[in-house]
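Troubleshooting: if your tokenizer reports a length mismatch, compare your output against this known-good record of 145 residues.
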Amino acid sequence: MVVAFGAVMLWPSSDQFRTQSPPVMSEALEPASFPCRVASVHDGDTLRCADGTRIRLHAVAAREIDGTCSPGHPCPSASAEAARATLVRLTANRTITCFPTGQSYNRVTAICSTPGGVEINCAMVQSGTTVVWDRFNRETPICRS
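Known-good structure output:
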């Protein structure tokens, strides 16, 4: 009873709420970019950061490491080995910057760039080793610069 009385006595009055202005949102509620020190490349669209974060390149489709294409996924003509080698060339031993776009199978989907400003997702498509996955590209486009 005493606790309830104390809570009521300390509860702010409605006048206090009216005189306070609402918080101002100074920035959009978008996820922040993050650095990824590339530790390994799994295949043509997946890599792992040194901190353990797994990244799936957003809106890009590559063959699986065994050379197959998953049902319902776009399938590039280039080999899995060619796609992986290209991603290794773009990212190995670098700290890249990634902008998260979502999640996929315990991986962060992201649009990533090299320290020199090359968008990796777009470079993979332009190399011919991967293809654009239109379904996801419509949501957040790659190759914008």
